[in-house]
Amino acid sequence: MSFDIELARAAELIRSGQRFLIGAHARLDGDAIGSMLVSAYGLRLLGKEVFLYNPDPVPRRFQFLPGAADIRRKIPAGLRFSATLIHDCGARHLLGEHFPTPAVTGPLLVLDHHAVVSELGDVVLRDPSAGSAGVIAMRLLSQLGVTADDIPKELATALFVSLVEDTGWFRYPGTNAEVFGLAQAAMHSGVSSWDVALALDEQLSEASLRLLTQILPSLERHCDGKLALLTLTDQMLRDAGATMDDIGKPVNYARALKGVDVGGLITVSDDRIYVSLRGKGQVNVGALAARFGGGGHHNAAGCTISYRDPQDVPQSLAEAKSQLITACQEVMASASRVGSRA
Q1: Residue 136 CB partners (closer than 8 Å, separation 6+)
Q2: How far is CA 237 from CA 20, 31, 212, 246, in A?
Q3: Which of 111, 113, 181, 177 is nearest to 144 (CA)?
Q4: Is the pLDDT of residue 149 over 50?
Q5: How far is CA 279 from the centre of its chain?
Q6: Residue 294's pLDDT band (boundaries 50, 70, 90)?
Q7: Residue 308 has pLDDT above 70, yes or no
């Protein structure tokens, strides 16, 4: 169905209901939590009851957001919802293994802008050209009469975070006139770009810097220098006295290298190997992540690679890197062939 048809269906679903569950993918990022809070504040303006849920705790850098403390990791027994709004998520498994059953959630309304997805949702508002999931949330609210021209500062702050986090402070290809228009509306509502920047990016812990000094020496380059990989291990976290909240975005250092088309951060823990990927446009890292059951955008994606032998982490890491390098070579070769025919 077209986006406009799905938008009309979504608006009717909201109008006819009263209590809504608000969720997003696990491991909250700025767009996920920002778009969640945009919808939550918007629905409350419409007189609706909302309950915010995510299986993981809110990362420290987003705890300044008004409403972040309302996000709960468990849903009280007995609650039932008219519908559930899922943000920034294109696959069921990304919601976490304890996501409630349809008897609890009601119909699933998905607000998403990923290009690489699996089947999820009864009503789907998906537009890969949208700058963030927060943009989709505002389109829905506008359809319901809550326009960006006059929104409270709490909603505007959540919207602004959604925008800047998924456009890299208006640098990435998803930045367009719609994004700038919503950013202007948010600032008109009282949002200070510097205050948001301070909260998001200018409050580093000492542990985060110590951790960075351990991650950067792990740099490897492959695929004729076009793939740069960094590695993060639990031991590095312990040595730096750091937590997951201190990690930041070291993958961007890998991508920023001259001559690199794909940057990756491999995070190795006791139970999984997680790969975060970033691109510069030449290679679709979403398609690369999809080869391992993950997904994302053209220039930002992630996936999990299973351990072959949980008792032999170094060997499993070596095999994961080998698989990733081979897949990247194939995706790069495919992109090169397409480019040569263009």
Answers
A1: 35, 111, 112, 113, 125, 126, 127, 130
A2: 38, 25, 10, 9
A3: 111
A4: yes
A5: 15
A6: confident
A7: no
